[in-house]
Amino acid sequence: MRDGTRHQKCPEGNTVTSIGDANKNLVRRYYNDLWNKWDLAAVTELISPDITFRGSLGITVQGREGFKDYVSMVRAAFPDFHNEIEELIAEGDKVVARLTYTGTHQGELFGIPATGKRVSYSGVAIFVIAEGKIKDGWVLGDTMGLKRQLEGE
Length: 153
Prior knowledge:
By secondary structure, the chain is of the alpha+beta class. The protein has one domain: Nuclear Transport Factor 2, Chain: A (Roll). The protein is 31% helix and 39% strand. The strands form two sheets. Strands 4-3-8-7-6-5 form a six-stranded mixed β-sheet. The protein has a two-stranded antiparallel sheet with strand order 1-2.
């Protein structure tokens, strides 16, 4: 193709889609199924066994088990944590997501005990996709804004 776009079969059927669209759909499923529905069974399908992941809270983990531990930590702090995708951009094997995170602080985070406060903060995530799975994730969240909300400033 003239614009350099590669195409592949979409896993949902025989629809042909660009690699970028397929990768964006993977990231949508990642947020919808794994984070918004807390479906840890989706980890095997969406996440590479050797993932390197730096979450929006500034914690870096390796491998699926480390990733699951991170998800469980976030869920303990914010049982109703929700990820709203504001924008997705795909280029080659990378997808960038601009997000808004919301939740109610129900468990310790940053050494701050549960406050019951409803919070909202922004973030940007950069994912590398390999063989149809998320291999690397690097998420920058506005943790200073989050801490200010939790501390009541």
